[in-house]
Amino acid sequence: MDYTKLAELLFPDIKTTPEDMEKRYPRRELPEGAVVTRFAPSPTGFVHFGGLFPSTVGERMAHLSGGVFYLRIEDTDAKREVEGAAEGLIKTLATYGVSFDEGAILDESGKISDKGAYGPYKQSLRREIYQTFAKALVKAGKAYPVFTTEEELQDLQSVNKKEELKNTNWEEEAVAKREAMLKAREISFEETEENIKAGNPFVLRILADGDGERKVKITDLVKGALELPENDEDFVLLKSDGIPTYHFAHAVDDHLMGTTHVIRGEEWLPSLPKHLQLFRYLGFKLPKYMHISQIMKLDENGNKKKLSKRDMGANMDDYTEMGYTPEAVCEYVMTLLNSNYEEWHMQNPDKHYKEFPFSAKKMSVSGCLFDYNKLDDVSKNVLSRMTAEDITKKVTQWALSFDPEFGALLERDSEYAAKIFAIGRGGKKPRKDLATLKDARGYMGFFYDELFKIEDEYPEGFDKADVKKTLEAFLESYDESDDMNAWFDKIKAIADSLGFASDMKAYKAEPEKFRGNVADISMFIRVAVTGKMNAPDLYTVMQILGKARVEDRIKKMIKAL
Q1: What is the value of pTM for the model shown?
Q2: What per-residue confidence (pLDDT) applies to 313?
Q3: Number of domains within the chain
Q4: Is the same domain home to 380 and 394?
Q5: CA proximity to 132, closest of 276, 236, 3, 10
Q6: Which of 81, 363, 521, 541 could covalently link to 495 via disulfide, CB atoms 3.0 to 4.6 Å apart?
Q7: What is the residue-wise DSSP string for 361-407?
Q8: Are 36 and 228 in contact (CB under 8 A)?
């Protein structure tokens, strides 16, 4: 067959050549060792937690090497595309500190535009580019058309996928599929011309030269040395609407955009032989591949399962609603990506996570286990390091969106809220009361009369008469101007007067001699003032609440007793 003539028949409107495209997208001029990576999601819904992994890895590798990190929108599947998903994706990634040097960005009007010299960065706008290389493959005898009538297309679209999965005759059908593929290769120029004249749509398939019995070797930067079966399938390059499949589009785009490292999920490993063959056919230099293991979680039975789209925490927007800050989530991701991050962080507690020397060599081969307890620990550290003013702003902003009543109270007097958050903050060992911004209401709600309530009852075993006498004695001696030492001396005096030990050493030595100890006396007062058995430093709490509210709450408790 005259392949040049066939190429002109299939792509009469394509006048550009691969050489033209190489001139249009020249090689990048970057320092030695600079890495060019990309995040290339499909706009089919929300940003999955698993998507934060390749984007974080790509951003770190590019920026730590002085390279380029760009965003490409792979929107070639129009049926699955969700309106506004691409715009939402860009906003979400920006929230989580994933900054792109070029690619698809949002302009001032909120619409997607391009930044950089290698666009368009939406694949749906690159049709001419793909068809240029498709035409070249046909001309080289490495791709061929398979025609499908409209009726056949409708039949294919109506196939029940669930029934296909139940099919037990897959071996026989695989043989039949192979025979059909080989027969499709035999199409003549005359048959092709007739179909074109009849207006029948076609898909363009690669003419595979692999043998499934042989192995192809490649080194993955995460998985290590791999041996995979060669590709012997004539997979589709262009669909009947002229739009490329992922396989074809990613090969063309990654080459022209100068991608040096392709970072993606391990679910793409079975497709790798296809991509190796494509790069060879197209004459492109092969990028380095990194296939990241899937994110796992434990189900109710303690078994590992993939973090699915239906799981809480799969949607990145979940973390905002749950009250996790982007800083906490990003640090948690770093602990999952590199096992030595926590050790580094302990040695560099004041450094930003982006200063960590991330290494692909430290990534897990087997996968990461998602753990909310671990996320909470990381988040507590992140929140404890914030200034009182910063945490006040973040909690207020969160609450106004997800807990308006609490948000209004915080917004009413931000200085008062900042005083509360300042308790135990700063120093080498700051308090770690909050795992999330959502926890703030439970932690500090008692500071507001509108939210105050007695949450904890006095433990059994204590005489209510002792509690009442303690509260009455405290009211008699309470002076708001006392410093902490004078204030506590008065509490110890109350303990002694009621037969409670003011000296903890004496109590521990002979507990049977006392009705209790000074800690119990403090607890009697704490529950009356805060409604809780456990609360921040009681002296500081009273200073913030003020004398009138402290006395009012104690009087109400005495009356209740």
Answers
A1: 0.84
A2: 66
A3: 4
A4: no
A5: 10
A6: 521
A7: GGS-SS-EE--HHHHHHHHHHHHHTS-HHHHHHHHHHHHHHH-HHHH
A8: no
pLDDT digits (tens, 9 = 90+) for 173-213: 666 777 888 888 889 999 999 999 999 999 999 999 999 89
In order of 76, 79, 84, 120, the CA distances from 111 in angstroms are 19, 21, 10, 14
Question: In the chain, what percentage of residues exceed pLDDT 70?
Answer: 94
| 143: its two tokens | 């791709």
Q: Do 238 and 380 fall within a single domain?
A: no
What is the per-residue pLDDT for 517? Answer: 97
Q: Domain containing 524: what range? A: 464-560
> Which of these three, 369, 384, 399, is where a domain ends?
384
In angstroms, how far is CA 184 from the centroid of its own chain? 44
In a domain, 39, yes or no: no
Report if residue 27 sits inside a domain: no
Q: Are 189 and 5 in contact (CB under 8 A)?
A: yes
CB contact at 8 A, 248 and 278: yes
Burial class (CB in 10 A: 0-12, 13-18, 19+), 78: exposed
Same domain assignment for residues 169 and 242: yes
- Asked whether the CA dihedral 145, 151, 152, 156 is positive or negative, the reply is positive
Contact 231, 208 (CB under 8 A): yes
Q: Is residue 229 part of a domain?
A: yes
Task: Compute the average pLDDT of residues 387-392.
Answer: 97
Contacts 24+ apart (CB under 8 A), 314-318: 314/48, 314/49, 314/50, 315/46, 315/47, 315/48, 315/49, 316/46, 316/47, 316/48, 316/49, 316/51, 316/52, 316/92, 316/96, 317/46, 317/47, 317/92
Question: Which pLDDT does position 350 carry in this prediction?
Answer: 84
pLDDT at 142: 97
Q: 138 with 251, same domain?
A: yes
40 found inside a domain: no
Asked if residue 538 lies in contact with residue 529, where contact means CB atoms within 8 angstroms, the answer is yes
Domain match, 245 and 348 both? no
* CB 233, CB 181: distance < 8 Å: yes
Q: Name the DSSP letter for residue 269.
A: G
Give 419's DSSP letter. H
